[in-house]
Amino acid sequence: MIYATILSNLKDLYERSWDSFGTLVLELPVENLYPLVERLSEELGFDLFLDVTAVDYPGREPRFDVVYHFYGSGHNRRLRLKVQVPEADPSVPSLTGLYGSARYMEREAHEMYGIRFTGNDDLRPILLYEGFEGHPLRKDYPIDMEQPIVEYREAR
Amino acid sequence: MEYISPVRSPLEESASPDHVLVNLGPSHPATHGTIQIIAELDGETVVKADVHCGYLHRGFEKEAEHHTYHKIIPYTDRLNYCSALNNNFAYAAAVEKLLGIEITPRCKWLRTLLAEYNRLADHVTCIAATVMELGAMTAFLYLMTIRDYIFEHLNHLTGARLTYSFVRIGGLARDLPEGWLERLEEILQFYERYIGRIHGLLDRNRIFIDRTRNVGCMTPEHALNWGYTGPILRSTGLPLDLRKDSPYLAYPELAFEVPVGIKGDNYDRYYVRMREMDESVSMIRQCVKHLPGGPVSVADPRVTLPEKGRVYTQTEAVIRHFKLIMDGIGVPAGEVYSAHEAPNGELGFYLVSDGSGRPYKLHVRSPSFAHMGGMHTLLEGYQVADIIATFGSMNMIGGECDR
Questions:
Q1: Sign of the C-alpha dihedral, residues B258, B259, B265, B271?
Q2: For B351-372, what is each residue's pLDDT tens digit?
Q3: Does the beta carbon of A80 lie under 8 angstroms from any beta carbon of chain B?
Q4: Residues with Cβ < 8 Å from B270, sequence gap 6 or more?
Q5: What is the share, in percent, of chain B residues with pLDDT greater than 70?
């Protein structure tokens, strides 16, 4: 029901849509993200911003998928949005103006993948520390790389 | 080596000169080890708070990309270590969804039973810690006694007190040992006797009410906006529960209520958890009654290890065992988001597979992380001592928040 409304009313805002295990997925260009989410939250009852994360596909152009998950408490439906951003300019608009919970989630995606959320004025590291170099969840960051904040002592 | 502050708070520059900046944690007995709250105080009142987490970050998602699907199970234990089984089951459900595996009826009911049992332990721990921080030592000891009985009982089943790793993709590690269900009923009766004492000690206790009533209030809209789920969201009066709304496992066949609060303050959060525990006990009893026979794991050669006896005697079984251990389960390419109602709220796993034996990407939507993102709104405007009460009622679990 709500999916049919999305597919008919928002069809100029997204490019592709498919079903993933009962969840509607929309793929859309980055410039349509904010207008679409605005309508989701104001007209279509998606009041819970669950999550934002990214998926790294090195070698693909554009390199990153930014993935959003929403939930509507009134109609009990989920929605996934996917936006592709290039490595040269990994920017997406921040959704902190619409959902408070976007604040922390965007900080995490920023430090883990280097996605820039324009409009979020607080993109300090959150799980890592100030001065950490690189973005650890990118595929080209080696898993065994160490950058301790306090230098290791020599074993005696 | 130049010293870099691991956390720089914007409050250091913006705080009014008349106010005091207080640093609570990360090493503070009431911050459960791993969180830092920087508060700007005007007298005793918190004007602004900056909550900083990450001290328990272990790189779960990076590790997951380098391990086979079965080897990730012990990592999921350490997300919420007070209710490891719920994490196990939520993770396994995501992988099974992508594989298209239907678990056996006995496994379905056993997982439901164990999930509720572990939820009981988690709520007991949360309430115990909260009231202990408010000074209620007797209640703490009563609750910890219940918790320890549950943990010892789960130890009998799984071999570990906290980090069970009991799930397998497509089933469970083993079936129940003999006499386990009889002992379960004993513990539930013990729980009922002791929880009555907790109600007697706390429900109408003047000190407890003064510390918790009308402290850290929020409306349902506020809670949704800041991403709250689980008992915290329900304490505001919104009956949102994934077990009811998008039922999984055996929940559609169970009769249970979704308790809600009135105004989302600390007392409501305490009471919602107390009521949820009673519902869990009722659900466990229903599960025991309905528990069907049969195998606990699916007989699917793609995921289930062959029996040991056959591994030692048959070549094909050795090869299959070797391939499953070394290459891992071949999960078809695709992506899935699967969420369970963990004791703290919506625990979601977003899994992207490229068809190999290891996840291409495994993201955890952990309830505690979302809760910490909005906690400053519940601290600002209240007293500095209320930080402890409010933070306790959030049930922040470092392992889950920082991953």
A1: negative
A2: 999 888 889 999 999 999 999 8
A3: yes
A4: B127, B130, B131, B202, B212, B393
A5: 98
Residue B10: pLDDT over 80: no
* A104–B369 C-beta distance less than 8 A: yes
Query: What are the domain boundaries of chain B?
Result: 74-300+327-402
Quick check: B1 pLDDT over 50? no
Both tokens of B4, joined, read 């870099």
Q: Does B4 touch chain A (CB under 8 A)?
A: yes
Domain boundaries, chain A: 2-118
The C-alpha atoms of residue B80 and residue B346 are separated, in whole angstroms, by: 12
- Report residue A39: phi and psi, to 5°: -70, -35
Tell me how far CA of residue A42 lies from CA of A10, A12, A34, A38, B331, in angstroms: 13, 18, 12, 6, 38
Cα distance between residue B91 and residue B77, in whole Å: 10
A49 touches chain B (CB under 8 A): yes
Residue in A80, A100, A141 closest to B374 by CB? A100
pLDDT for A20 equals: 87
Distance (Å, rounded) from C-alpha B242 to C-alpha B90?
12
Helix (H, G, I), strand (E, B) or coil at A117: strand
Give the residue among B231, B218, B373, B239 at the shortest CA–CA distance from A73. Answer: B239
What ipTM did this prediction achieve?
0.89
Q: Domain A2-118's class?
A: alpha beta
Higher pLDDT, B372 or B15: B372
Q: Burial-class residue B16 by CB neighbours within 10 Å (0-12, 13-18, 19+).
A: exposed
Among candidates B324, B323, B331, B375, which has minimal Cα distance to B349?
B331
What does the block give as tokens for B220? 């349902």
As a whole number, the mean pLDDT across chain B is 88
Does CATH number 1.10.645.10 belong to domain B74-300+327-402? yes
User: Hey, are the CB atoms on A101 and B54 less than 8 Å from each other?
Assistant: no
Chain A hits for B1, Cβ within 8 Å: 151
At residue B141 the predicted structure's pLDDT band, cuts being 50, 70 and 90, is very high
